[in-house]
Amino acid sequence: MLDQPALVASIVLAIASPALAGFEVDLGTFVNAPPVPAYGYVGAYGTFVSSEMVTIDSAHTVIRIDLAGIMNAVGATHLDALQVIDLGTNTYGATSPGADIDLLQLSTSQGIASGTFSYLGPNVAHIGESSEILGTRVAAVDAISGSQDLWDQTHVSLGQLGSLTMAFGSPLAGGPGQWGGGGEGGGEGESGGGGGSGPPSGIWVGHLPLLRVSEAGYGESFRIMATFSDNPVPAPSAALLLLGAARRGRRRRR
Ligand SMILES: [Ca+2]
Ligand SMILES: [Ca+2]
Fold first, then answer.
1. Distance from residue 113's CA to the centre of ligand 1 (Å)
2. What values do phi and psi take at 251, rounded to 5?
3. 228 CA distance to ligand 1 middle (Å)
């Protein structure tokens, strides 16, 4: 059994270590429905979902998901990844290979966040495609139709049960600023700065992440999963409180 100072030391160490407790949250299933900007939603976070109309050539529905609100609701401090998934319930074939994701954009109070994109699924147009090209496809509302993704880099057609992942593990070179470190006005400093345990991870909830997503066309549904983490910045005041409690405990025992 640990004696009291060793126990306190281990507790303080546990608090100071940026233990990354990642967890997945199903943000729900979405579908565009006429007329613009109508949409359908099945999920637990409807109060954080809204939509807007964007007109580029023609009118498109853009679904807006208040991720900061959802993160506050589930107790997450950082957003580590987003995954858009085709559930296998759409139409598949040469003319429309699953849900066509035209826009997948994370805006924050610091600007548009950089992410690392990857595709997993049966659509040969996207297998092995680079993060840069996938990112270009979903950077803007500009899709034409789902069948043209071999030559037209405006969207990602997920294919049956395919998925597109946008990860925020670390800031990309040339990305706009420091993501996930916190500190902007909050006095929290950079996460991981003291432990030397790698780069800061994720998008901080305090930067008010908002996801804007658009599926080119109507009627094809997709699910969005989020990977959040509760990655608290070490709190010296908490460690001091524990030390104080331990000292009081020791006094009582004598
Ligand atoms: Ca399609
Ligand atoms: Ca696009």
1. 26
2. -65, -40
3. 29
Q: Which residues pair with 21 in a beta bridge?
A: 230
Give the pLDDT confidence of 158-189 residue by residue, as tens digits.
999 999 999 997 543 233 344 443 333 333 33
**Burial group, residue 149, by CB count within 10 angstroms (0-12, 13-18, 19+):** buried
Q: How far is ligand 2, taken at its centre, from the CA of residue 89, in Å?
A: 22
Q: Which ligand sits closest to the CA of 143?
A: 2
The structure tokens listed for 29 are 């299933």
Token digits for 205?
A: 């909830």
pLDDT at 239 over 60: no
All residues at 6 or more sequence positions from 136 whose CB lies less than 8 Å from its CB, including other chains: 153
Centroid of ligand 2 to alpha carbon of 149 (angstroms): 10
Higher pLDDT, 2 or 156: 156
Q: State the pTM of this model.
A: 0.75
Distance 24 CA to ligand 1 centre (A): 26
